[in-house]
Write a structure and sequence with these properties.
68 residues, single chain, five-stranded antiparallel sheet, 12% helix, mainly beta, 1 helix
């Protein structure tokens, strides 16, 4: 068995926003997907899910610093 250690930017259940969403709807991380040399996050909003890389996502703290 091989052990894997990864650092995650976001956690399941964490509220996030997408940088590409002009309306800035809140979404929630529902899954973490490990792919070769990268990590993707599945996010959900109003029954719809989509998958994104960490650089496409930001948290409320980052959102506040962008707006100010």
């Amino acid at each position: 068995m091989t052990q894997l250690s990864v650092e995650l930017e976001y956690q399941i259940g964490q509220p996030v926003w997408l940088k590409t969403d002009p309306e800035q709807h809140e979404r929630m991380i529902t899954a973490i997907i490990l792919i070769p040399k990268n990590i993707m996050y599945r996010v959900a909003m109003a029954g719809e899910e989509s998958e994104h890389y960490g650089f496409e996502i930001f948290t409320d703290q980052k959102k506040s610093s962008i707006e100010n």
